[in-house]
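Database export, one record per block. Field names are fixed; values are copied verbatim from the stored entry.
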Amino acid sequence: MTDEERFVADLNGYLVIRDVLGADELADMNEIADDLFADDAGLRRGKGRVCLWGEAFKRLIDHPKVTPYIEELLGPWFRLDHDYSIFMKAGADGGSLHGGEDGGRPGGPEGDHWSRYRDGVMRNGLSVFTFFLTPARTGDGGFACIPGSHKSNFLRAIPRDVMSFEQAAEYVVQPEVDAGDVLFFTEALVHGTMPWTANHERRALLYKYSPGHSAWSGNFYDLDEFDSLTEQQRRILSPPSIGGRDRSLDA
């Protein structure tokens, strides 16, 4: 990560990593997605276990342009907690703003939602790296968030109609992304999904990572479901282990 990227990620709680996927990768993935959803005409479609869709999607587990960001933001021992896709056509409903550190309250139910900094080191709990197969321009909808809310102490003050997107607020933003971009955000950030308005389909693949010693989802990957995995991919897909604990922020 560059110094500017560290600044932006720490400031906002999210970061857009540009031009991760090339034209050939995008064409391959979109063609596979077309086949997978050929019989689903719904406005909002999605499937889990994206990394099992084929080699192109398996490579996203530890994509060489993204892995260095995961290592710096979560620590060198991280694991893929779960993954899924969100495809949306014009008119598809979104989902209200949610998240925030520990679900917005100390000791809350989302104990993996946290973000920390000390002595030049950033670390995060459950974090998302979203791969975009199609663009999202300003006003299209899709991912939205409240920048900096991963540090806020007043999350309960956000009005309900703002959380549900019924009332616009200047502090809620929808970042613009191109096809091939990847957007990182920590689950400690208040975020959600705006209704989709663009004529083209939104296609987003969400790969969610945890520090190596923790888990948010209890539905662990079965390594036998994969045709072949590198040693690194096997480690990333494995259940949590105390051996994967990063002690850089320990007291």
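Remark 1: The chain has one domain: 3-240.
Remark 2: The radius of gyration is 18 Å.
End of record.
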